[in-house]
């Protein structure tokens, strides 16, 4: 009875181990990406025309050559030593491949088995970065369309950063001094793709501008222009007023003289036109004076 139980146990255990090894068989010997080519590395050095060469995929015959004649598959896909080239791989190209070489007397000369796994092509990564002045670091991100099952690596000035293997990289701003170039690579078992080189530029906000003077440069320019115009306007006004004042004083003196003359020489006609004429000539002169000042300023 005990013997029976032990036997049963052994049977169950062996079945379990068999299953385990079967699961192990599912792991891949060769990896490739969709669209790529893959050479199945079977080598039989003394392969000749008298041998039979057979290749199977998932137990389906895909290549058969006997007496130098190829009846299944393409002759050019097989090398002199018997390796098979798989072109333009698809997901359906995955699976178990087997090569068999038979002697002319139909005995097996050499066999080879391989499990091929086909994966998505690694997308080309793209680096984005953020300057973080609070923490004094630049944070780089190695962006890829499908980041699953990918390993990442980074280079700084073309030197691999061996300790950086995550999708993001943080570098202190102090380390960024001088133009530093970064690149990242995404890798899976089927291939590797590298990003373009990126030179992060982190311009710190100008060293501590007092918050009250936080104007945009446009505002500053506008205010400066306004100030200059105001000064020019005041300058012109001052010149005009000075000119006019001086002139009117002279005119007044002339008028006094003229009136005296009129009083002494010409008492018959009423003195109606004199002062108004003088007044208009004063304003004319002021206008001329203003024009001249303006021209000078423009010339200056
Ligand atoms: C071969 O088997 C694998 C699984 O082992 C499967 O993914 C693949 O599609 C199969 N291909 C063909 C052509 O049967
Ligand atoms: C078949 O041929 C091979 C090489 O020609 C030889 O090594 C092998 O012993 C032969 N086997 C038998 C059963 O004749």
From TrEMBL:
UniProt keyword terms in alphabetical order: Glycoprotein, Membrane, Signal, Transmembrane, Transmembrane helix
Ig-like domain residues: 125-199
Subcellular location: Membrane
Signal peptide positions (record): 1-22
Keyword Transcription regulation: no
Classification via Gene3D superfamilies: Immunoglobulins (2.60.40.10)
GO terms under cellular component: cell-cell junction; membrane
Coiled-coil annotated spans: none
Transmembrane segments annotated in the record for this chain: 220-244
Main location: membrane
UniProt-recorded name of the protein: Ig-like domain-containing protein
Originating species: Echeneis naucrates
């Amino acid at each position: 009875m005990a013997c029976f139980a032990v036997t049963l146990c052994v049977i169950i255990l062996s079945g379990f181990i068999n299953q385990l090894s079967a699961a192990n068989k599912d792991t891949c010997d060769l990896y490739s990406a969709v669209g790529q080519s893959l050479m199945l590395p079977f080598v039989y050095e003394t392969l000749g025309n008298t041998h039979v060469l057979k290749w199977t995929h998932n137990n389906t015959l895909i290549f058969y050559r006997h007496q130098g004649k190829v009846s299944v598959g393409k002759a050019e896909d097989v090398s002199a030593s018997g390796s098979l080239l798989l072109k333009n791989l698809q997901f359906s190209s995955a699976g178990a491949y087997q090569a068999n070489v038979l002697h002319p007397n139909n005995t097996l000369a050499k066999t080879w088995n391989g499990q091929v796994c086909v994966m998505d092509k690694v997308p080309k990564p793209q680096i984005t970065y953020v300057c973080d002045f609070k923490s004094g670091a630049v944070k780089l991100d190695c962006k890829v369309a499908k980041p699953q099952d990918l390993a990442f690596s980074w280079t700084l000035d073309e030197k691999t950063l061996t300790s950086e293997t995550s999708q993001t990289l943080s570098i202190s701003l102090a380390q960024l001094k001088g133009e530093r170039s970064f690149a990242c690579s995404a890798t899976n078992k089927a291939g590797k793709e590298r990003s373009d080189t990126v030179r992060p530029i982190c311009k710190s906000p100008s060293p501590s501008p007092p918050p009250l003077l936080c104007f945009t440069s446009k505002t500053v320019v506008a205010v400066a222009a306004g100030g200059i115009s105001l000064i020019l306007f005041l300058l012109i006004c001052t010149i005009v007023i000075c000119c006019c004042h001086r002139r009117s004083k002279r005119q007044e003196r002339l008028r006094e003289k003229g009136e005296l003359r009129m009083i002494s020489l010409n008492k018959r006609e009423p003195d109606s036109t004199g002062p108004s004429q003088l007044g208009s000539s004063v304003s004319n002169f002021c206008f001329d004076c203003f024009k001249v000042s303006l021209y000078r300023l423009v010339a200056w």
